[in-house]
Amino acid sequence: MNRNQVLPQVELSSEVGSLRKVDLCAYQAYKGHGFLGIQDLPRVAEGASTVEAGDGFHWKLETYFEDSPGSLPRQFMNLELKGQIHLVCQRCLKDCPAELSEVRRFALVGSEHEADAFPIEDDQQEPLVASQHFDVLGTIEDEILLSLPLIPKHPEGVCEAHTSAFGVDAGRSEVLEKRENPFNILKNIKKNS
Ligand SMILES: [Zn+2]
């Protein structure tokens, strides 16, 4: 039996305020989509060098349940993000558009304890702790931050190095790129904490 057919289907409002509090403990399936401007995403906005018309992110989200042998059905959330933001190019120090297109799947768990026990090697899905006031907007923002380039740059040959640009020396910027992306470190801390 497909449980999702009998679950109430709830359309998520695309209004920013209501995305901050979504009841993921109610036994219902959500579906929604919308567009968030850079100004709607304060933590993302901090990194924006400028905001041009069209900057922002389209999001599409759905939650659903899958039967899980021997226990209650498991809840999942699929999130698609597509959009663009302007960041500072680390070569020329001018505005540089960064495009993003991501598809993520999350497993919703009941507690921090369950999230900790979640297999960390599972790259296909990340655990999120479900709550009655789940911050969907915060989750969208987290995923955008995790997906943005660590060292934003125009494509090769498009711009010239600013004389005072950080990492202008090729060897040095290579070292920087080889270092582990701090957002990945953050991600692992999030999982391990
Ligand atoms: Zn540049």
Structure description:
The chain is α/β, with parallel strands linked by helices and 193 residues long. It contains six helices and six strands. The chain has a six-stranded mixed sheet with strand order 1-2-3-4-5-6. The structure holds zinc ion. Zinc ion binds at residues 89, 91-92, 94, 96, 153-154, 159. Residues 89, 91-92, 94, 96, 153-154, 159 line the site of zinc ion.
Q: Which key features would you list for this structure?
A:
193 residues, alpha/beta, six-stranded mixed β-sheet, 6 helices, binds zinc ion
Whole-number mean pLDDT: 86
SSE succession: EHEHEEEHEHHH
- Gross morphology: elongated
Strand pairing plus helix content: what structural class?
Answer: alpha/beta
What's the story with the biggest beta sheet? Answer: 6 strands, mixed
Low-confidence stretches: 170-176
Task: Provide the list of bound ligands, each named once.
Answer: zinc ion
Calculate the terminal CA-CA distance, rounded to whole Å. 37 Å
Overall strand count: 6
Strand order in the sheet with the most strands:
1-2-3-4-5-6
Set out the fold topology.
Layout: E1 9-11, H1 16-19, E2 29-37, H2 42-45, E3 56-68, E4 71-88, E5 95-109, H3 112-116, E6 126-129, H4 136-147, H5 170-178, H6 182-192
Parallel strand pairs: 1-2, 5-6
Antiparallel strand pairs: 2-3, 3-4, 4-5
Summarize the structure.
Helices cover 23% and strands 32% of the residues. With 193 residues, it is an alpha/beta fold. The longest helix is centred in the last third of the chain and has 12 residues, at 136-147.
